[in-house]
Amino acid sequence: MIKRILLLLIFITFIQCKEESPKKSEIINDYTQFVNPMVGTSKMGHTYPGATAPFGMVQLSPQTDVQELLKDGKYNPKTYEYCAGYQYRDTTIVGFTHTNLSGTGHSDLGDVLVMPTEGELRLQPLNTENEKGFVSTFSHDDEKAAPGYYEVQLKDYNIKVELTATERVGFHQYTFPKSENAHILLDMVYNIYNHDKKNVWTFIRVENDSLVTGYRQTKGWARDKKVFFAIQFSKPFKSYGHKKYDKVLYNGFYGRFKEDENFPEMAGNNIRAYFNFDTEQDEKIQMKVALSSVSTNGALKNLQAEIPHWDFDKVKKETQQKWNKELSKIEITTLKEEDKRTFYTALYHTMLSPILYEDVDGNYRGLDQNIHQSEGFTNYTVFSLWDTYRALHPLFNVIHQERNNDMIKSILAHQEQSVHKMLPIWSHYANENWCMIGYHATSVIADAIVKNVGDFDKKRALEASVSTANVSYFDGLGDYIKYQYVPEDKSHSSVSKTLELAYDDWCIAQIAKEVGDDKTVSEFSKRATYYNNVFDAESKFMRPKLADGTFKKEFDPLDTHGQGFIEGNAWNYGLYVPQDIPKMVDLMGGKQRIGQFLDSLFTMELDDKYIANTEDITRDGIIGNYVQGNEPGHHIPYLYNWTDTPYKTQSRVRMIMDTMYGSNVDGLCGNDDAGQMSAWYIFSSLGFYPVTPGSDKYAIGSPLIKEAKIHLENGNSLVIIAENQSKENVFIEKITIDGKEINRLYLTHNELMNGGEFIFTMSNKPNKNLGI
């Protein structure tokens, strides 16, 4: 009887365990383990390794931007190398800031730097002949970086630093040694770029023995940026103070108070404050830093709403779960583990911007510097549109449709608040910095409309686009309208501007088609052909033209300077007619000739003098004369699809993925440019790419994955399988969609959104008839 009872109990236990075991489909894999935030922190990737939430307003990251102090007392900032405040080669950390740009080609931000120290109080960051600074050495052996988490040991102070973040709050955890002289510094002088020359005004207020509020106004790339903050300590500080570094001392108290270093309100241009503690051995002091663009009260609301407790591990876990949820939208298997790490790190980088830019109550600072309430959308900022319209926003139209809808509404709000009534060009932190050329918000809008993404007002979007396209004083636009091209003797980078504006005008025509505005369709379809006017039929290059209608005589198609192009040359940038590739092929002499042109582009030897003039990249980012390390040529490998040898797209794309991307610190061959470089890799790994945003078609390349499952927001799942996948099998033998073979070199957006099964049968030999 006892045996029977035992057997029965074992059987019941087995059944219960079986019933309680999660189904295979319910098991959630940890995709954060494949992400290496250190990728791109070396050389010119310009990424940061710190803690942030997906699209988060706080980017809490270490700063190694320690400027060299010259003998004459002046600083020598290596501005361009420190766009994200961090370079992997460095061995010292100056502190941890709460705002950082990812992968951009310009320096800014670096707000609210904090630094824990121990021992003698030091307020100068750098070591000099007469004084030791508060910087600390560190080792990469003691450094950990993962989505939503960063850790490092500050060697000079024996302090362990751990960082995590929610969308609006940075959470610090410092493990101190036993000390009667532990400090946490609040350095409001530090900025990424022009450290002590950028501040307009700084204000710090000690509310009580564990709460500090304040703000800083700066004039940098964002000409008038305001960052408000609220800092809460887990332990009361025993004393505090500050030092002012203003060249002109301000007295705002009219003689009624003496503003000494212990005064609870600190105001001026450049201020460093300090907060002192007694600590036991291995005592943890925590600090929460909330940001707001609106007010210190807004920062306090964000603080209470997002982290009302002191459980660091809980916040870390919740933020990593948010990352895993976003990363798991695309589940892949690969031939090599490194390819999986490269893929998920790239996917991670595509979600570092644009960033959330509103408080928990929906208030945000607008372009007009007034406070607005987001109604029916979430407001975003950091729009590097010259880069991101190409692949990042199209990627959002596949896996982040709701977010991209909000981003477009943010773009339209920007236009409404603009005194110029223009859509953003390159905007961040309630500012327009006018960086780069064209008005590519029109591309972002057109791509969403054509792909039926979002519920934004299409008619309003068209009006905003047309308004933008007729601001005659904007960057050569008046001459473009007058001459039907941008004359080189009236505006620099004239060919690039003409080509980009013509494409943007085509995008406006696509928006107008959806709205049903035939007159606007006709007007902007005509403007979209203006690229013809800078094509030189004799040399077969796009070439700078003067206002008198003649081409510029001194012309070197290999040079990137003074030849009518920006961040590119005639060989690369001259291939930019995405709105009408067949016509461009005809202009250049037909399919066979452009195929030969592309072959030459990828195989020629480029002299070092030309590489030296190529922005943002090193020789590592160049194949022949083709530049993968910068955006103007990202569509070029796919142009073979419009030639007699389309299979060469497949071999070129695979070669680029294999040689120019990786999972180590130098895994990017140029600036990540707010996620565009990484978005190229994501699309290309899956086997297709949006050569013409604003069209519903994707050019087929060569998938790198073995299998991918994309979970779409409409509830469908898209499965992509690369049969016979191997390093050698880079060519596509055939393609089937749900069992039906297709003989074309493109996929449509509806086909993707319908889900189903796409099978690429791979081979080591090209199928020369595929798509012909």
Summarize the structure.
Residues 34-292 form the Glycosyl hydrolase family 92 N-terminal domain. 27% of the residues lie in helices and 23% in strands. It is α+β, with helices and mostly antiparallel strands.
Question: Would you spell out the secondary-structure blueprint of this structure?
Answer:
Blueprint: H1 2-20, E1 51-52, E2 59-63, E3 68-69, E4 75-76, E5 92-93, E6 95-97, E7 113-118, E8 136-137, E9 144-146, E10 149-154, E11 159-165, E12 169-176, E13 179-187, E14 199-208, E15 211-218, E16 225-233, E17 239-244, E18 265-268, E19 271-279, E20 283-292, H2 296-306, H3 312-327, E21 330-333, H4 337-349, E22 355-356, E23 363-365, E24 371-373, E25 380-381, E26 383-384, H5 385-388, H6 392-399, H7 401-417, E27 426-427, H8 441-450, H9 458-468, H10 477-483, H11 494-515, H12 518-527, E28 535-536, E29 541-542, H13 570-573, H14 581-587, H15 591-603, H16 608-612, E30 622-623, E31 626-627, H17 647-660, H18 676-686, E32 688-689, E33 697-700, E34 707-711, E35 717-723, E36 731-737, E37 740-742, E38 746-748, H19 749-753, E39 756-763
Parallel strand pairs: 35-39
Antiparallel strand pairs: 1-2, 2-6, 3-4, 5-8, 7-13, 9-10, 10-11, 11-12, 12-20, 13-19, 14-15, 14-18, 15-16, 16-20, 17-19, 21-34, 22-25, 23-24, 26-27, 28-29, 30-31, 32-33, 33-38, 34-35, 36-37, 36-39
Helix pairs in contact: 4-18, 7-8, 8-11, 9-11, 11-12
